[in-house]
Write a structure and sequence with these properties.
7 helices; 54% helix; 149 residues; six-stranded mixed beta sheet; alpha/beta
């Protein structure tokens, strides 16, 4: 089962947020099955912006962080087809365009889950379910993946 990560999970793992969320994100990422987690390219662009604007990283430091994520996970590229689907998500479900693109790319690359704190927990579109990994109780499929059952 493929799992996509949203930008907020990466930002927490980079230390942007309260200590509890940051540690939870790092623990979550460390417990995901090897080779099953992936990153829509959009998430890395958003993370780069956040690292510079909110964390005061230099562009060089932000680049190094992004390259580290890219070395650790499969990167899912955006296609014109994914953009078209994102436009539909904006029109039909009132998502923001960049969030819609992350969901569309996740679906296009056959992800089963998109882990995100920002999107609607439990919303399923084209086989991808958005799961807030910080919610309690934890989503059953995520519990199983993480070996908590």
């Amino acid at each position: 089962m493929r799992i996509a990560l949203d930008t907020n999970i990466l930002a927490y793992a980079e230390g942007l947020g309260d200590d509890e969320r940051c540690e939870s994100a790092r623990s979550l990422i460390g417990r995901l099955p090897e080779g099953k987690a992936c990153l829509p390219a959009q998430t890395l662009g958003e993370l780069h912006r956040i690292l510079i604007a909110k964390n005061s990283n230099t562009p060089s430091a932000a680049r190094e962080a992004i390259l580290g994520w890219a070395d650790a996970f499969e990167i899912l590229d955006s296609t014109w087809s994914a953009f078209q689907s994102a436009f539909d998500l904006v029109a039909d479900h009132q998502l923001q365009i960049w969030d819609a693109l992350i969901l569309a790319v996740s679906a296009e690359h056959h992800c089963r889950l998109l882990l995100s704190e920002d999107l609607q927990h439990g919303f399923t579109w084209r086989g991808v379910t958005i799961v807030n990994p910080f919610s309690h109780p934890q989503y059953p499929i995520l519990q199983t993946i993480l070996g908590k059952v």
